[in-house]
């Protein structure tokens, strides 16, 4: 029997939505210019400070994570400027495409997919491009399951340049520490459909004082994504354009859930889920795309290029058992499989995914011993 309401979505976003958040989003609609909406927006923005690690008030946009990436580009740099984009996968490449689309001179630091950027690499590159006005980084590269060392990379930039440091934190913020102010990150963005356990539709942006000074000097035309408009409205506990009110109800509840768990516990849970997943896959003899040092706590990638079997067949067999994992992107399409373990995810979810993965491998004729991956993950939980 195929019970769709019991489907297990284990892709790196969108992620499953807890019932508690679904119920919050089902509240009756309110007027978006009324006092209730103002309080809701203010409460969400205040709670978001802990997520970003900032004393500044984050901005909330109605749009996907990509809208926040575009806003970061159009507000911080303009045609004729030079910018550096560090590309460790498909989403670094997306940053580069946005930069190019707006007529900004792009200096692209390409890092082999599956590895992180080192501070030494970036420092050298920044010194070679002293006119760059901004450096764009990706905290978690979803397409390759790589976590870049943002604190160290930001320092490498500031040691050699006055360029703004702009970071895509869409697929990891909330699952990993973020100390934006301490790290001197100038713009950090994230989205609703990852660790925050919401549907797609909200983007959050936090901006440093240094970045605001640059933004206010920019002449690049922009309208819906003009961050100064959001700042002015947020100072009045409002939004410049119609906000996604139901999603704001969900965001308030999601942040409350994470606060109740405790941020350090949330970070530890994601680390544990990552270790379980990697231990289970290794026990099954499945190659991983990233090293332990570069691994993200929100997504793990199987490197199908090192196997005699097809990762798309693996995904197909797993989907027939109501477990959905992701494939690769761009040149890794059909070459890797990615397992998301972020947000509304716990140890039992990982055990389920590994158990189904074992059965899928068995059906494909992959030589695995049933229970091996699950056992290895259980040992992580039990500290055996």
Automatic annotation (TrEMBL):
<comment type="similarity">
    <text>Belongs to the class-V pyridoxal-phosphate-dependent aminotransferase family.</text>
</comment>
<dbReference type="InterPro" id="IPR024169">
    <property type="entry name" value="SP_NH2Trfase/AEP_transaminase"/>
</dbReference>
<dbReference type="Pfam" id="PF00266">
    <property type="entry name" value="Aminotran_5"/>
</dbReference>
<feature type="modified residue" description="N6-(pyridoxal phosphate)lysine">
    <location>
        <position position="194"/>
    </location>
</feature>
<dbReference type="GO" id="GO:0019265">
    <property type="term" value="P:glycine biosynthetic process, by transamination of glyoxylate"/>
</dbReference>
<dbReference type="GO" id="GO:0004760">
    <property type="term" value="F:L-serine-pyruvate transaminase activity"/>
</dbReference>
<dbReference type="InterPro" id="IPR000192">
    <property type="entry name" value="Aminotrans_V_dom"/>
</dbReference>
<feature type="binding site">
    <location>
        <position position="338"/>
    </location>
    <ligand>
        <name>substrate</name>
    </ligand>
</feature>
<feature type="domain" description="Aminotransferase class V">
    <location>
        <begin position="29"/>
        <end position="330"/>
    </location>
</feature>
<protein>
    <submittedName>
        <fullName>Aspartate aminotransferase</fullName>
    </submittedName>
</protein>
<keyword id="KW-0663">Pyridoxal phosphate</keyword>
<keyword id="KW-0032">Aminotransferase</keyword>
<dbReference type="InterPro" id="IPR015422">
    <property type="entry name" value="PyrdxlP-dep_Trfase_small"/>
</dbReference>
<dbReference type="InterPro" id="IPR020578">
    <property type="entry name" value="Aminotrans_V_PyrdxlP_BS"/>
</dbReference>
<dbReference type="InterPro" id="IPR015421">
    <property type="entry name" value="PyrdxlP-dep_Trfase_major"/>
</dbReference>
<keyword id="KW-0808">Transferase</keyword>
<dbReference type="InterPro" id="IPR015424">
    <property type="entry name" value="PyrdxlP-dep_Trfase"/>
</dbReference>
<dbReference type="GO" id="GO:0008453">
    <property type="term" value="F:alanine-glyoxylate transaminase activity"/>
</dbReference>
């Amino acid at each position: 029997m195929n019970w769709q309401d019991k489907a297990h979505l284990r892709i790196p976003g969108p992620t499953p939505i807890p019932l508690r958040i679904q119920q919050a989003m089902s509240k009756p609609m309110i007027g978006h210019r009324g006092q209730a909406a103002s309080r809701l927006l203010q409460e969400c923005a205040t709670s978001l400070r802990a997520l970003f690690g900032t004393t500044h008030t984050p901005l909330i946009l109605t749009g996907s994570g990509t809208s926040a990436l575009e806003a970061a580009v159009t507000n911080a740099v303009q045609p004729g400027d030079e910018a550096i984009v560090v590309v460790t996968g498909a989403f670094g490449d997306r940053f580069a495409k946005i930069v190019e689309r707006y007529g900004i001179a792009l200096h692209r630091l390409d890092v082999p997919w599956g590895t992180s950027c080192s501070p030494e690499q970036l420092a050298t590159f920044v010194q070679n491009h002293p006119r760059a006005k901004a450096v764009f980084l990706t905290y978690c590269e979803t397409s390759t399951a790589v976590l870049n060392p943002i604190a160290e990379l930001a320092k490498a930039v500031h040691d050699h340049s006055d360029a703004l440091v702009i970071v895509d934190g869409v697929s990891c913020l909330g699952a990993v520490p973020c100390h934006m102010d301490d790290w001197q990150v100038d713009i950090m963005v994230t989205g609703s459909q990852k660790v925050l356990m919401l549907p797609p539709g909200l983007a959050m942006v936090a901006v440093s004082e240094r970045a605001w000074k640059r933004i206010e000097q920019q002449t690049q035309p922009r309208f819906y994504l003009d961050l100064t408009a959001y700042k002015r409205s947020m100072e009045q506990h409002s939004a410049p354009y119609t906000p996604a009110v139901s999603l704001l109800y969900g965001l308030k509840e999601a942040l409350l859930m994470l606060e109740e768990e405790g941020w350090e516990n949330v970070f530890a849970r994601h680390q544990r889920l990552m270790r379980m997943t990697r231990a289970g896959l290794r026990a099954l003899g499945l190659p991983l795309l990233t090293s332990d040092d570069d691994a993200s706590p929100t997504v793990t990638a199987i490197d199908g290029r090192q196997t005699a079997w097809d990762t798309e067949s693996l995904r197909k067999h797993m989907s027939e058992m109501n477990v959905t994992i992701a494939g690769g992107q761009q040149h890794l399409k059909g070459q890797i499989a990615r397992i998301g373990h972020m947000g509304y995810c716990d140890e039992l979810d990982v055990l389920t995914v590994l158990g189904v993965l074992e059965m899928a491998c068995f059906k494909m004729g992959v030589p695995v011993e049933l229970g091996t991956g699950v056992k290895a993950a259980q040992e992580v939980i039990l500290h055996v």
